[in-house]
Amino acid sequence: MTVMQSGGSRGPSPTGLADVIETILDKGMVIDAYVRVSLVGIEVLTIDARVVIASVDTYLRFAEAVNRLDISQEKEGLPGLVGGMQESGAKHKTRGMLDAATDKLKEYGDNGRERQGARRSRREED
Amino acid sequence: MPASTREKSKPETGQQTGVYVYGIVPGDVKLNSGVHGVGDPPGEIRLVRSGDLAALVSEVDITKPLGTPDDLQAHQEILDATVTDAPVLPSRFGAVLTNEEAVAAELLDANHDEFAAALRQLEGRVEYIVRGRYAEQALLEEILSENSRAARLRDRISGADPDATRELRIQLGEIVNNAVANKRQNDTRDLLAAMKDHCAASLVRTATNEMDAVYAAFLIEVGQVGELERVVQDLSDRWRGRVELHVRGPMAPYDFVGNGG
Fold first, then answer.
1. Which of A19, A21, A52 is the best mutation test for B, with the most CBs of B within 10 A?
2. pTM exceeding the 0.90 threshold for the entire prediction
3. What ipTM does this complex have?
């Protein structure tokens, strides 16, 4: 895998297990429920990093971050917008597949924070 | 989307192993021996062929839980390693069939025409993810400079008792939050517009971090990688100090198959 980094160097690189989870648990071809067999453990896998949900906690945290700013040097506004939104979606859709896994991948917001990892409520050996 | 068939068949009594399916590839693909996949112990990767299609599989013990970080990494690494040589339809993590006969008959044969057509469309194409994070301080300064109401609120809470100004803080935070969402939308639009002529398809991923600036998947021809890198470099220069961009790939086309997301 090639990782190309651009731009500044602030903050940690957003790669690793969280990216893998967002890719292979949330994307990819879902195989028809009829031909699958049950697999211990898969049902309880959940993604709780899916959606950013704003809450009062988020607002207070933003306000605190703003309050800490030293705004002696304010910046100019941004350049204007370019072009139109193009969201072409899943063009090469493979039909005939049933979306059997989505109902197991519950989506949680976590007060707007990202939690990096899948949660497994029973992971011990049987 | 059909939603009526959520029930999964139970494993037959006494069945201990299943066949884990990583993805579908053309039937002429060759495999290096000694590559191991998911499970404990990890099963060796095999090909189940039927006609001009093949499935990348390995045997798993279905009495044990699956889904350790190693399992997740193995699933993606096997698919991403494949896509540079051959088109692949990646399965979502966790697809297990009864046995290799079921893979050939119920998966490959039963869906032959759709799989073959999808693989033809994906020939020579790979997925890249472009993700950008805002630099928080630069972003907040930008928002204050553009929004006089936010700037006034900031002046009012500055140095004040946090408890006494809680409502004002919530108001300020909400303005900031909405401004970030607007900027994310605008920046994503700029990225998609810049990539428009350099990809076969694009898909905006849902932001999963409040500092996400852009998060999108692109299906590109292998020969377009240089164009992608130029677009990202140009945007990176334009957004210097404001957004940090990362590119991941080549990857299997997870965002461009199936009905997920």
1. A52
2. no
3. 0.77
